[in-house]
Amino acid sequence: MKRSTIALLALFIAAFSLRAQKGYDIKLNLKNCQDTSMYLVKYYFSYQFIVDSCKKVKNGKVQFKGKTELEKGVYAIVGQSKSSLYFQIFVNEGQKFTISADFADMVNTFKTEGSKENETAFAYMKFMTNKSRDFEKVRNESKGRKDSLAFLIEKQKVFTDETNKFESDFNEKNKGSFIIDFLNLSKEKYPTDIPKASNGRPDSIYQYYYYRNHYFDGMNLKDDRIMATPFFADRVKKYFEAVVSQNPDTLIQEVDKFLAKCTEGSDIYNIMIGYLTHSFENNKTMTFDNKGNTITFEKAFVHMCDKYILSGKANGVYTEETVTKIRQKIDIMRNLLPGAKVPDISMFDTIGGKALMKMGFDTARSSTAISALYEKNISQITPLYKNLYQVNAKYTILVFWAEDCGHCQTEIPKLNENLKELKGKVDFKVFAVQTKGELFEKWRKFVVDKKLDFINVYEGIPFNNLRDKFDIFATPVIYILDKDKKIKAKKLAAEQVVEIINIMEKMEKKQ
Question: DSSP per residue over 57-102, as a string?
Answer without folding.
Answer: -BTTEEEEEESSPPPSEEEEEEETTSS-EEEEEEESS--EEEEEEE
